[in-house]
Amino acid sequence: MINNTLSRIKVVVRLTKEFIFLIGLMIIFFMIMNIWGHQENSTLWASIIVLFSIAKIYYLVMHTFKKLDVLIENNHSFNHMLLLLGAIITLIVVSFTMDYLCISEIYANAFLDIQYSQSIPSRFSNLLYFSIVTFTSVGYGDIAPVVPVAKLITVFEMISAFIMMVFVFSKYLRKNENSR
User: Fold this and answer.
1) Domains of the chain (ranges plus CATH)?
2) Which one, of 70, 74, 85, lies nearest residue 3 by Cα?
3) 39-62 pLDDT, tens per residue?
4) Structure pTM?
5) Rounded to an integer, what distance in angstroms lies between the CA atom of residue 52 and that of residue 91?
6) What is d(CA 176, CA 161) in angstroms, rounded to the nearest whole number?
């Protein structure tokens, strides 16, 4: 019982550190982008965001699979797996929100119904909503990507959602089935 609780706390602490690191990295990127003329060099900054998103997806997917393997090997409960998945999904959604925020900073009309004149917290909350709607594949259409780089990043988030939901659950169920 105590070991199980300590294990959960360790998982939460590690995921919190990773979350803070990734979000901190995105905030630093956002600040650097604003200092070094992101609108004059829009193609360069958009390319950097795309490359960062690809690297981020690869890292998060591989990292999730490794953590899932550890949970399965140590016979952790389904609740542990759900905790891991919930934390990773939160990390993905917030990190894509930061990508969208950077894109909306580079291209004033990158998203339908997101105005550049909105304050950054207001844009962030609207883009967080958009990210959640995209990740869950609901797609209301009230906010939509307009510029090609925004569409590409949105596709990356959709792919991430598919990989996380389908492959993670199937891997967990397959490993559980094999262990019986």
Assistant:
1) 2-179 (1.10.287.70)
2) 74
3) 778 898 899 999 989 998 888 888
4) 0.84
5) 15
6) 22
